[in-house]
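ugh ok so i messed up the first submission bc i forgot one of the chains. this is the corrected input, ALL of the components this time, i swear. 987 residues overall. if the numbers dont match what u have on ur side tell me asap before i send this to the collaborators (the ones from the other lab, u know who)
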Amino acid sequence: MSSLLRRLGYFFGRRRFEADLKEELRVHEEMAAETAVHDGASAEEARFAARRRVGNRAQLSEAARNVWRPAALADLLQDVHYALRGLRRQPGYAAAAIITLMLGIGATTALFSVLDAVLLRPLPYADPARLVQVWEHHLPRDRRENSVSPLNYLNWVDRARSFESLAIYRPASVSLAGDVPERLTGCAVSSNFFSVLRARPALGRLFSPGDTVAGAPRALLLSHALWRRRFGGDSGIVGTSLPLREGVATIVGVMPETFRPMADELYWEPWPMTDELRTRRGRGAPVVGRLHDRVSIEAADREMKTIASELEKEYPDFNTGWTADVVSLQHQVTARAKPVLLLLAGAIACVLLIACANVANLKLGQVLARRGEIAVRAALGASRGRILCQMAVEGMVLAVAGGALGVLAAVVGVEALVRSELRQIPRLAEVGVDLRILGFTLLVIGAAGVVFGLAPALGLREGELRQPLGRRGGETGGVPGGRRLRGALVSFQVALSLMLLAGAGLTVRSLGNLLSQDPGFDARNLLTMDLSLSDEAYVEERRIAFSQELVSRVAALPGVAEVGLVNALPLHGQPAGTRMRVLGRPAPPPGQEPVGDISVADTGYFRAMRTPLLEGRGFTASDRSTAPKVVIVNSAFARQLLDGASPIGQRIRVNLWAPDSILEIVGVVGDMRRIGLEVAARPAVFYPYLQQPARFLSLVIRTERAPEELALPVRALVSSLDRQLPILNLETMTSYVAASTDDRRYPMLLLSLLAGLAVVLSVVGLYGVLAYIVGQRSREIGLRRALGATGNSIARLVVGEGLQFVGMGLAIGLGATLLSTKFLGRLLYGLSPNDPITLALVAAGMVVMAGLATLLPARRALKVDPAVTLREE
Amino acid sequence: MAAPRDPLRVELLPGTLDLLILQTLSIQPMHGYGIAGHIGRLSAATLRVEEGSLYPALQRLKLKGWVKAEWKLSPTKRRARYYSLTAAGRRQLAHEVSAFDQLVAAVRSVVRPA
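and heres the new structure output, hopefully the right one now
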């Protein structure tokens, strides 16, 4: 114990120690010299003799110092010193190993930080395990996770005992008035929304009951992001009034930065539960709740299903076929992203393994090349354990260097990812490299260092340590064990690469399949823009007048072919849907009524979209509010509701918008894919704009040249009509089509990137092994040439050796691929997970890449000069 | 020119250097050069203490807490580092002397059986 204290004393007083020792030795030399002079030597001789007696001072100091350091630590420092010196001597090898590790560890760290934030960490609310989402669920169509009818919600609140409270919310938007008009998307929330999530404002207050009283000023809570961006983070903003196009609002508070339950909402407004909600119509608002203590999700789910069946009996018109589901909020938030993230984690782990195999291969080659040096050290008395320890330290030094760079790369990469604000990754703003993740990375680094430090060294058996001293190592055919081990490593790499390549190939072809899907409209040369005529000033007549003015002015712009209006663009949000039925046909049993999309279109919409009119007529200017109510349906409607009979002249009733009117079908248009390219169209009903003048509209402009060129003229035109009208989402239709495939595109790109990385790493690995083998066997090759072997047969020898490893890898890889592609799941479209064409293509690609890797070593083998070999013998 | 080999010089038994140093210091505090000289003189130059072993040995003894070191003026007015025994060092010396006696007796009884 006290010796430990003395050691610590040494550790902190090292400088003193060194100075004392140096002075002590100097005094010693002086005394020795004096004695010698006393004995009759010359001063010069005496000093020289004294110095010789003391000998190598550095060595002596080292020995004295080592007394104080624990022996293992001293050895370790020495090994680190050796390792660094060794790496400096071989900068190429060091750089290759360190860069490989940097890529592997960097990618692993970055992805782990995403996985950690998205899947593992609890949601950023108090006691998040008790938060649940409650959905309606239509059993006949198995439509899960359906938003909730507000009146059903009110019944749930009255009856359910499992919850502390249940809150309801719906998307909302307001337009900021002023010089820079802007539409803000946000949430209208029930008064208990924030208490369910246990959220507190960063500034100001939450909503109070007074905010929902009729006639009270409109209250808004700002998101942290909006507060910073639009109001410069001014804390004096609380309590001030904010001019909106919809009227004046009061800013009552600002929420903290971490509070963004929908990820991108900019503000919250109260949603008063008015009588208007007390009709059972439409299901459009999600419900979130907090469970009571000791109530399990399963128990809550059972209770909600009981309540739903009561409501089904009480309101059979509206609720037949509907039940309710309770889902944990954590699961809700991450469920969609989870399989893809896990898949990518697997892919990255494969790349890390390939990288480690490469470094192990490099190290193995280096160990075999250094057998001479190792044998000398063994002969000089280094134990096998000591030599292995040194190998492990060398591996560790590489791992630490590569790991440090990798962590740096990960930090930079993660920051870029967070800034990208990809909507496909939930909770992205919470992602960051923190201490926990660094701990994980340290584990990876440690494991990697030990593995490729020791794995190659274990190939050196006790006998082999000393054996090369006699006959100089490396010249006589190489070590079979080393070759086998390296071959196995290469096969392993090829197998993993093939697996990743197959995954990438399948997702690339799926995306191709998806994009070649006909959406039912022509997305090229279409410019679109959203308008929100939600202003108090825009009463119905003004709305119609304004939009018609806008359409005719845009149509007059040079380069514009057609202009149309619609209330919901395809592939841009979800259209409203409701039950509909054809009059005069047998009514389906309750709960089995067909459900379709309803939207509003003007006279030019279908022409602008190039969606064909299949039957009847389009809308005309005479389909006005005073005229008989008419609609256009799509062909899915004709197929599903009329069994293929002609819809023209049929009369229908639709449950929303004009529930009491009888609507006559005047036309049939082709199907449009509206939710996603992979989702077949469901029945759709279009109302003429003049009979159903919606407040939210999208302008569709068919252009004769690149649509982007018209963006500026259109913007200027809108401003000239109404300077304060916010211009929203001025986008091309092709960008919506692309965005609708984003949740396949990003995984596809990442998988392709990883597969490319894997192939490059394994090709480099294969090349390294073959080059090594050719070097080892140059004597044999020279002899063969001397004995008359042709260049062809030599090349075959080398290439054959390489392809043997590759063949093994392909066989294993194909097996692994067949087992693993099913994890691609939702990323696949229009082909089977074991699509033979894709598998054949990637296998062929792998063989070609491997073939290229064998060419250089084969050329080297051909250049072996038999004369040189013979002379050396 | 190679130094002539001294036929009388004897290798120290492992572990005996510590004993010799402790014994030397039990007479009086001494600096490193003095310790080496003292052991050389008493053994009539049979035992030569190498500086390369002496100083690490002194550090070892210091680490174990058997000796302590301080800078003092020598009789020749030179500042030198004097080592002296601690109480623990004295106990250790007594222990090592008896252990050495036993060892020598045992070796002798094997080499020259009575």
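quick check: Chain B touches chain A through 22 residues (CB under 8 Å). that seems consistent at least. The radius of gyration of chain B is 16 Å.
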